[in-house]
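Handout, section B. The chain below has 545 residues.
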Amino acid sequence: MKENGSVLGMYQNQKGTLRADKYQAYANYITKFIQEYASRGIDIYAVTPNNEPDHASYDWPALPMSHTEAQNLVANYLRPTFDRNGLDTKIICWDHSYTTTNYKDGSYPLEYYQDASALAATDGSAWHWYEGDEEVMSVVHKEYPTKDIWFTEGSGGEWGFPKWNTAFLNQASSVVNITRNWSKSIIYWNLALDQNGGPDYYYDVNQHQDSTNRGLITINTDTNSWDYNVDYYTLGHISKFVDPGAQRIDSTSLDNNIETVAFKNPDGSKVLVLANLVNEAQEVKVQWGEQSFRYTLLPESMATMTWNGNQVGNAASPIWFNNLESNNNFAAGEGASVATTDSTANLGGSKGIMLTTTQNGDPGTDKQCVIISSESGAAIDASSYQYLTFSVKDMVNPKSATVKVTFVDENGTEVSSWSHEKTVYDNWTRIWVPIAGDKGFDRTRIAKIKLGFYWQGNYAVDDLAFVGGYSDGIPQMNGNLVTNGSFEDDGSAVPVATGWNFEGGTPSATYLEKNSNAASGRFHLVHYSADAHDAYTWQTIYNLP
């Protein structure tokens, strides 16, 4: 069925992709697999077309598949075959790491979803933890919020993170951040292996030599006993307490050394998982509405807390850092200039700033950037919030760009990172960046925020705020409860509406929205058809009486 005639991803210098004439046969095979399991009382919840499609190895079975090949397989063969056979099994794309050689930072599902037929035929994306950052799952979720996300493989072994200390710290952080970034599941690869790390593929093909893989438990076949591994405990901190159907609720990590995730179970009980990633005890304050308690986390440890009851009081509402309406608390970094300008971001008012950079390259922390202080000029306590969010209009990069964000506390300590989300050329885009949490950085006293850009040119910036999550909106402005006020109409329209498709075959047909990057809700629309035309937008309104 494969181009190279081998189960291996690469064989005799040829990649083992699926032959074009075997797509239907492969769809039939997957369908039969589901039916046969069902006949034995086992319902298959979901399938992925293949495991790790960007992996083509000479020594491992694999079915490499580009996003365009997967679009064709799922939209034209797999989903139609499921439908003909009355199967409601979910189809999930990707099933690979957060970043890979050919698909950086979650780009595979983003490109895959741009095909309307594949998008409609697919229920979501699946992820592994071997490369990259969990936050790319949030980027994909933000662009396609109706498509679910599952974490489907994380394995332990001496090949990656050795037992206990190193593996514990990595996995403790992973299980917290996987669920913080929209995943509906956490699946470890091996439940149980023997004292030789088998049975597995490498163990079998290497004449039963020791494997370096590790299960949640190790079963000693010589003594008929077993041992619990580090993987058992890191997964157990969530799996033992979080029930099927639970919903993740907001929680705040005070720094990168204490990470948290919280859930509400179907019975209303709450679960809080904490991971202390440094080799020293740390005291935390857990606040739930107006109620709170303190707890000391042991060095390099995890803790899970559960409770019942109704919350008294509310969580912190979003607050402005600077909406840039009535102050000049900003300055230009080296190689840049900045000035007040009219803003059509339509979130925090009508004013913003225009940053002009005059050179290319990594801005570091002081170059090609705007340096923004708070509205009052005093440091801001952001310890109750998870994200900095701001609006940016990129007038430089048709292919989009990321933003270098540097947080500066009152002591002058600086922490920088690039945004995972990207700008959209000549359109206002809302960016969310996790608030810095490195040890030694005081997020209770954030004095300045620097926004820098790699490529020289003009960037409009507006409405910096601290929020708890993506869905929190921003602070109200002058009593306006609507957080995205209108369609944009500021002369930024282009002759050809990029990212949009024609409904029919001629230029007179109606445009349909196809640009997933237009997540901020503001577009310049031009209707080219003589027929009736429906245009849809959304508004989020908070705190109605």
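Note. Residues 67-84 form the longest helix (18 residues). Compare this with the example in section A.
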